[in-house]
Amino acid sequence: MRFINAKFIKSASQKSEFLNDELPQVAIVGRSNVGKSSLINTLTNNNKLAKTSSTPGRTRLVNYFNIDNKFYLVDLPGYGYHKASKGIANTWDKIMNDYFTDNEKLKLVLLLLDSRVLTTELDKQMMDYLFDKQIPALIVLTKVDKISRSELNLQIDKLSKELRYSKDRIVATSALKKSGVEKIGAILDEYIK
Ligand code: GTP
Ligand code: MG
Fold first, then answer.
1. Which residues line ligand 1 (CB under 6 A)?
2. pLDDT value of position 162
3. What is the per-residue pLDDT for 79?
4. CA atoms within 13 A on the CB side of 11
5. Which of 13, 42, 104, 133 has the fewest CB atoms within 10 Å distance of its CB?
């Protein structure tokens, strides 16, 4: 699929505000600052759609973007940044857990990993969590413009061994080069009918 008309619909700060209409949903998760909002802008070819920032923790709400009236791309708050403040961490856990629990509209999660860092402990926890909930996840590497081709291949080898995950299901993306969009589109076709 291609992403033609993308429109911001709403931000939700709690369960009662979540969208639950007929459209399927594809959610984007990952550490704070990994490039979730940037990926939304790359996919939709609109640099102003999702707010990006070099300050971690920019996205604190569940943001819904309608894509061609076919599905919602859902930008979720990043993890790993709220460690210092227990109060915020609890709110984060609650909104994420609410979003992922009994969400029949959620068809796929794009789990973003920085191509230079790969997995952190929190990413592993996130993967285990999604696995337990039987939510399918696609691994998306971000910021691949910051490493060389050969480094990228090494990183993909390493990750695929570590996670016992097929290499052709790891998608390399760059917001700077606008790369990886077609591959993500092709995979979304499998999950959104
Ligand atoms: P939170 O909302 O805080 O969780 O962050 P996020 O995951 O939405 O990250 P965001 O998209 O705001 O990007 C964080 C920073 O990384 C910004 O300064 C982006 O410009 C930069 N960035 C994101 N993707 C890429 C990329 O592919 N290449 C490069 N070079 N920089 C990127
Ligand atoms: Mg963001």
1. 30, 32-38, 52-54, 56-59, 78, 142-143, 145-146, 174-176
2. 93
3. 86
4. 8
5. 104
Residue entry with tokens 């930008």:
75
The counts of H helices and E strands in the chain are 5, 7
- List the structure tokens of 86: 């227990």
In sequence order, what are the beta bridge partners of 139?
Answer: 111, 170
CB 70 within 8 A of CB 192: yes
What does pLDDT average to over the chain? Answer: 92
Between the CA atoms of 79, 80, 81 and 87, what dihedral angle is there, to the nearest 10 degrees? 80
Q: Does pLDDT of 50 surpass 60?
A: yes
Rounded distance from Cα 110 to ligand 1 centre (Å):
15
Helix (H, G, I), strand (E, B) or coil at 137: strand
Q: Over the range 136-162, which residues count as b (16 or more CB within 10 Å of their CB) and which as e?
A: ebbbbbbbbeebeeeebeebbeebbee
How far apart CA 143 and CA 116 sit, in angstroms, is 8
